[in-house]
Structures are given as C-alpha cells and as structure tokens.
Design brief:
There is one protein chain. By secondary structure, the chain is an alpha/beta fold. It has ten helices and 19 strands. The chain is globular.
Length: 378
Amino acid sequence: MVIIQNANVYSPSFLGKKDLLIGGSQILAISDRIDPIPGFEIIDAEGRSLIPGLIDQHVHITGAGGKNGFASMTPEMRIEELLIHGTTTVVGLLGTDGATRSLHALYAKACALEQEGMTAYMHTGYYGLDPVHLMNSVQEDLIFIDKVLGCKIAIADIRSSYPQALELARLLRQVRVGGMIANKKGILHLHLGNLRSKMDVLFELVDSYQFPIAHISPTHVARTKDLFDEAILFAKKGGMIDITTGASKYTDPHLAVAYALEQGADINLITFSSDGNAGLEKKDANGKAIGFYRAPVSENFTEMRALVKNGILPLEQALLPVTINPAINLGLKHKGRIEAGADADLCMLDDDLKLTDVFAKGKQVVGNGKMLLETYFN
C-alpha cells in the first residue's frame, strides 16, 4: 500500500494538487488529502507532476532488422530499456520477418516482461497477408489469447503482400469478430511504407466497404510529407493516426503534430509509438550504409516533452498521444489515465518536465532517474 502526497496530478486532464492511494496494482483513491496510515509507504511528491505511465503500441520486443543478413538482426529488449523512459505498457509485434521471428517467441517475451513488472501485449500477424498466427486463425488468436489485441500487416511497401481492399476487409472481419467475442476492441495495425499508393486502400475500406474506422490503425504515417497529408485526411474522417518517434519520420514528430493541428486535425486522434528496437542503417556523410543501430524507445517521452517545451501544447494535451489516446486505440480502459480503478502506472516529472520516478503495476521501478527493479539477469 502506497500513498503519494502533494502531487500535481494530470489524469491527463489537470486535477490540481492531490494525494493518491495505491493498493496492489491499482489506484484506489484520489483526494485532496489522504492521511498517513501506519504501515503504508508515504511518498512526498511536492513540486512534481504525476502523469499516467506511457503506452508504446509498436515495439519489436523480440528484435527486428535483418536487412543485411542474420548478423544485422536486433536482439531482444530488456525491461529496463522501457521503464527508464517511462513506458509502462508495451505492445510487441513482428516486422518483415515472419520466419526466423515467431509469434510463439513474441508471446513468451510479452509474458516475461509481465512477470518482471510491466504490462505487455502483442499483435498477431506480420508484414505479409499469408497466415501467421498462434491458433488456427487471426480470429482465434484474439478470442483465446488474452495478450493479443489485434493483427499486424503491411501496405504500400515493397516488402508487403500488396493486399487489396477486399482481402483487408476479410482480415478486419476476423479482427473485429474475434474482438467482439473476447470483449476486446480489436484493431488491424497497418505498417505504411513509402509507395505511391499511400493510404488509398484504407480510404476504400472506409468509403466503399463501410468498415468502422475505429478498427483501422495505421502507423508510420509521418514517414513522408505526402503520406502525412493523407493521414490528416484519415484523422478528419475520425481515424486514429500513429506517428513514429524512433524511425520513419520526415520531420520531428512534435513538429508533425503542430502541422496536423494547423490543418485542422484533432489531437485526440493522434498517437505516438517508437518502432523501438527496429534495425536502422547508419550512414556516412555521403549516404553510404556503414552499419546498423536499434531504433530508440526513448523518443515517445522526448517528443511529448518537446510539444510542451516548444509551446505547441500544454502538458495535459501533450500527454494525450502517449497515454489515453493509445489506450483508446487499443481498447484498454484501465490504462492511460489516473483515476480510481485504473492501473497504477505512473510517472513523476520535475519542474523542467524531466522524468524522475516511474511506477508500474503499483510498484516503484525507477527512483530519481535510477532503476530500482530487480530482474533475473541484473
């Protein structure tokens, strides 16, 4: 049992100075004053802001890459890499490779992260249209496997299967019906490449096939300026659009958000995700590939902070793309917010909006910028 006192609470809406009571992995109460109780841990957050833990809905937790052979494949992630940057909920997925990378390993890694102290989900599928799932179908994965929130596929990319609208509609049907039966939202998470077709097939799904736009979840939408302009139109139809912070971006994500808002997009329909642990090329001054590095998972927090520091949005709105918006997109009613009954995933910021402390599932895992969590391989 923990009582956090005197915190400036952003739910993400600003609630003012409040005390929080945490029991187990949940927030039990929020009040102007909660008196100390013998045996409870008391944390004084005077002068600091308390925000929901960050949700990263696109991370290669089992590794990715492989463009230049086996040696260019990125390794599995460690939980410390996520928590130290305020990410308390993660969604793992496969990328191009559905052969050497398996959904079985992805499921095991998600379970491992959960056992170590954070919340982890996954998507079934990969870039291709050909079946890659754990059970007998995508629909069964959503029904019978709690951790599966949706299905991943690629479009507008030379590594994709070039799926047509009818094929995607049939896949969406599996996602939606599987989600209905399992009481999940169910989303089709779509990797967008840089082909000229852009988002044409997604507009066809909405306009011609009348598929509910809330179940269509495009990512890497700010890969190019032209693609982002289409994504803004998609958002104006009511669709959630996901800007990648760690890779695949034509400009800094906070500047992309500023542009989208200028064009009339709604901040409630914009999310950030990192594409963390994807394999990226290092290039010299002449553009020649000289090696590889892993896409960082730190940039969700960095870009959220940049929205505030550059005067684009106040903190309570800047938090939306990394907290409640991805929670809504994924259908996670207990995540991305600070309220009684929600999961006790929290971050503390100092007066310069630097991350100082992190709580995951009710347990403090980062204190004064240092990892406190003990894992099996520390």
